[in-house]
Amino acid sequence: MTTTVEGAANHAPTASEYIKHHLGHLSNHHQEGPVDFSIIHYDTMFWSIAMGVLALLVMWMAARKATSGVPGRFQAAVEILVEMVDNQSKTIVHGDRSFIAPLALTVFVWVALMNSLDFLPVDLFSAAFSALGVEHLFPYHRVVPTADLNGTIGISLGVLILMIYYGIKIKGFGGWLHELFAAPFGIWMAPFNLLLNIIEYAAKMVSLGMRLFGNMFAGELLFLLIALLGSTATVFGFAGQVIAGSIWAIFHILIVFLQAFIFMMLTLVYLGQAHEGH
């Protein structure tokens, strides 16, 4: 992210230019329309994979350092988290949880880490790229993968695949297919049932991704608006930036972990529903 935009190299960007530029992605080409399946957001891919690796590293370190004696702070925190996730999975999923409980834990840690990137200063990377002289290679750069609809829908698409997988695994392909055509109004309403069930699957996937995206995008946008207070070059602007930024950052801590918890819980709910019939 740079603080200048294309066509505005000789003057300071306006507030709208500043926000628009910071909301741009480093991608393989410019997106022309509202839907373009050929576009790849390199920044979203990089940070989501990096946070996934970090999440696995954190959990691997916790497992490696686990002892049967008095746990340290790190081990105690991880044990509390694991116990919380396991208790939730027991309540929601009635069946084999040997894969689902670790999946829920991974989802929570991964999403929480991706959300936490929103705490980084909005101009941190633009300043770093300028200092290194590579700003021309990174004209755009967004750090928070969950503030990109492509990222959240991608995760929810994985949950959708698991919903279908467990539906077939628990009920058998024939049972799952019969339920797809016969539930909830009986086989004589098969076309309507099929349409309704397809819409239900799609609604679950879209709502799961949209909920996380909406909250994180709004938080990122608010951080940008607060950052603009400092551009007023007044005492009120600088004081407002510090005070408002600090208050919103503290409140955003709750949002970051709450949204990760909600995403994890909905994942468990949807997989739990896949274990049950209509």
TrEMBL record:
Regions that span the bilayer: 45-63, 97-113, 150-168, 180-200, 221-243, 249-271
UniProt xrefs under Pfam families: ATP-synt_A
SUPFAM superfamilies, per database record: F1F0 ATP synthase subunit A
Keyword Transport carried by entry: yes
Keywords: ATP synthesis, Cell membrane, CF(0), Hydrogen ion transport, Ion transport, Membrane, Transmembrane, Transmembrane helix, Transport
Membrane topology: Multi-pass membrane protein
Subcellular location: Cell membrane; Membrane
Source organism superkingdom: Bacteria
Protein family per UniProt: Belongs to the ATPase A chain family.
Described function: Key component of the proton channel; it plays a direct role in the translocation of protons across the membrane.
Protein name: ATP synthase subunit a
Gene name linked to the record: atpB
